[in-house]
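[recover] target loaded
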């Protein structure tokens, strides 16, 4: 998967985001990946709804429009739940608590850029490296 960074202006909000663009990546999402650590996320596109079926930990979700405007979010979505937002083009999955520090605003436009270094996932670890 391609690795991106999420920015607000010139400030990096999430430095390491895996981009799930293909059906098999979207299908499995985080189920086959290690638990997200701080500064890491999974961008699922296209995606207006997600579930946490089979997950063992809660997630924060950020719903974005086709032009990366913040449409809404859901904090601390517990395992075995679902969330959606009509009109969202993509959903960013983050570790629970990440949105508190990010402090998103409805309507603000965020931007993506290629991450400075590729992220190599090591399933044996307790989180993303």
């Amino acid at each position: 998967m391609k690795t991106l960074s999420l920015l607000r202006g010139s400030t990096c909000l999430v430095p390491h985001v895996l981009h799930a663009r293909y059906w098999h990546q979207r299908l499995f999402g985080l189920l086959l990946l290690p638990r997200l650590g701080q500064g890491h996320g999974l961008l699922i596109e296209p995606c207006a709804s997600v579930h946490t079926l089979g997950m063992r930990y809660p997630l924060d979700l950020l719903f974005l429009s086709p032009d990366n405007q913040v449409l809404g979010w859901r904090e601390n979505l517990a395992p075995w739940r679902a969330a959606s937002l009509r009109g969202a083009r993509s959903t960013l999955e983050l570790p629970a608590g990440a949105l508190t520090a990010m402090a998103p605003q409805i309507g603000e436009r965020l931007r993506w850029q290629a991450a400075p270094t590729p992220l190599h996932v090591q399933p044996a670890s307790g989180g993303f490296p």
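[recover] notes: The two ends are 15 Å apart (CA to CA).
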